């Protein structure tokens, strides 16, 4: 049973693994299983032979623990881009990060083509203020090449004592020369939800899904409804753009905040009995007010759960560009004093039974931003389908999609997606996808 899972790199599960065995197998199956086990043990013997050869003959005396750790990480990273080994320190750092406060630069990253790729800078952090953008590739850290490092090793180098400087070299599409940024590390206190009144519309931005996200959303909606009278409040804009994801239970809670009933999401592992379904409870925090959700190419994982649930139930109109397409669930499995492994254990499915793995959420209304001149060559960023070794899509229809615009203007006045959402809520503009028709609600399996 998955008690709590992370959908990108901000969540944590502290639990145990239950092992089971099957007895009284038919003889033919038992023989096949024994043969398979025999082949596996031969391969393990091969690993032992290579390990001993490296220990005895390598030009320098290797670190045995480092060899084993690298082998484990190699095994996990060969599965998909999101499975990996975490050292004890990395595991502790993740626990701190999940609580919403940690030391560092303030960027969500993944590994792509041997380089660290920025999924999203976190609002009001040193990286954000220095001008790091979603889609940037970090090629050097303090002059040292990132190529050859694991993601965890690169992250470890970027973390450090508060008020110390770090120099990162960035490769940005549309620029021929590398961009070198000097950033001062700081305590990263993540306020995952921010809100404001846009006249007669409530605007709520969710930057990630950590342990405080639902509470922040609830507080934001309460404050907005206390300031804008119910008869004047036109609705809400929920901004999930460049939100890289986080805790599954928080994505479920945020979705539930807008739904009265129905399935929110299901997770399906290798075995049918591992399927978990999560349903909404009665109680809509907005009391049925219209909702528009903003997504783009940087909206991943938990963000896609929320957008997919509200889109399938026709509770909200999704506006922007196609989302990242990360439809897999990672379980963090502690290994005692030896750290933990992050292992992909399931795919998640929207209420209509659709997996968005490597495809993303297609918005009801697609709106592209106007790009500044220095970004003309990088209108799109790679999605999940663009990651090497990604988990394949299980959808029977359509093809995998990769690449979607992830730019959000710093000035709200230049934000075409936000401004169209506000105009739709106020009735200044019209679109057949807003408000969503309840009669066209997606078929949800019982």
Automatic annotation (TrEMBL):
Gene3D superfamilies from the UniProt entry: 2-enoyl-CoA Hydratase, Chain A, domain 1, 2.30.42.10, 3.30.750.44
Keyword rRNA-binding: no
Family per similarity comment: Belongs to the peptidase S41A family.
The organism's place on the tree of life at top rank: Bacteria
GO terms for biological process, alphabetical: proteolysis; signal transduction
Protein name: PDZ domain-containing protein
Lineage per the UniProt record: Bacteria, Pseudomonadati, Pseudomonadota, Alphaproteobacteria, Hyphomicrobiales
PANTHER family named in the record: CARBOXY-TERMINAL PROCESSING PROTEASE CTPA, TAIL-SPECIFIC PROTEASE
A GO CC term attached to the entry: outer membrane-bounded periplasmic space
CDD domains: cpPDZ_CPP-like, Peptidase_S41_CPP
Keywords of this entry: Hydrolase, Protease, Serine protease
GO molecular function terms attached to this record: endopeptidase activity; serine-type peptidase activity
Pfam families, sorted: CtpB_N-like, PDZ_2, Peptidase_S41
